[in-house]
Amino acid sequence: MSEIRIMKRGKVYQYRFEIASRGGVRRYINKSGFESRKEAQEAGAIAYNEYFRTGRKQKIKDMSYEDYLDYWMTNYCYFNVKYATISSYLNIIKNHLKPELGMYKLTQLDSYTIQNYINKLYKEKHYSKHYLKGILKLIKGSLKYACYTVNFINDNPAERVHIPKYDVVTGDPAHIFTQEEFEIILERFKDVPYIYYSFLTAYYTGLRVSECYALTWDNIDFEKKTLTVNKNIIKKNQHQLPKKYVITKGHSVEEWYYGTCKNPQSNRTIGIGDTLIKALKEYKKEQEEYIKFYGDAYLKHYEKEVINPHTERKEIKIVDAPAELELNLPEAKLIFVKPNGQYRGTETTRHAFKVINYELKIPCRFHDFRDTHATRLIEQGADIKAVSKRLGHSSIMTTYNIYVRVTDKMETETVDKFEDYTNTLDIPDTKEIPFKD
Description:
extended; 3-stranded antiparallel sheet; 4-stranded antiparallel sheet; 14 helices; 4 domains
């Protein structure tokens, strides 16, 4: 076993110990310049323990939690976490963790400090249970990596922290559209085709918002009446944009990339009915007329291969150019674009939902189209396995627990079914039964 040797070199001291040999040649770590033997011994012991414990010289005893969070994002999250989750992590880290916990040393954080911080958020900020759980989940995840993967700390103090009890049960945020409500929405946006048809597609397919606005015309098979989901769309520069930004004429300031689907089951081909087939055919014809009308000024979109700066892997970025400029890149024939070809991705609905919520007075999120699609299918007696596959869920239980709501119709039918079952019972009339003392 290697041992630390302390040697005097002139007027100063040096420590030295042997490490792994390379190419059959013995190697050493040594450092000189210490004024006393004791200083050399203490520094040598630290270097020796760091090398044999982790294989590197990084000193983490003084690392702040703020610096560690940057390390965790760079070395773990960018390689293992979906970009949408990374985006939410960055917001929580910037707005909550760094200002409140960032000044602590990583090795200094304990359950007491973290629990007090969570309690403070609960009392002062009045965050929802879901949001507070998300903050604590991030803290636990970051410290789990520090403890069990890179061994920066010997214990994960966040494992013993919990969120306070919420007495008020938060309601289901989903809104299941009535047929009348959906017709009102369509009527309001009938003159805005890229909004109208994207809402119609979401309502008839249950696609997630990132799946819907990633659709290209080659995903639609009009002959087989199918729609294929094989990608989603991701905005990657939202953290660089100012809070209030102006769309430049004809172009978007967002940067859009193709992403992989949420899970393997989300890659799917689903059947679509005649109503949506007919609508999309009409929309495609309308879009082709706009392309002719705008001519060389029409914005075309292309798939550009770039390298992710974090993972150093290839990915596809969507770039645009006027039709008069021919780019030597594969064309991305995105479906839901403005008449001039401008593409806003999932930002397309930003103004539309303000109109629906405040002008039409209908509670609405894009995900409500998905919730409604799933719930109405189940309501009409569709097989739960088929619905789960259609939605691209990894588990049938996800379909049951999250997306399928009990509607008034379901409750009425449940009562009616029990009535049908019990209608043969001979229940005596209480008026005919004599009272006995």
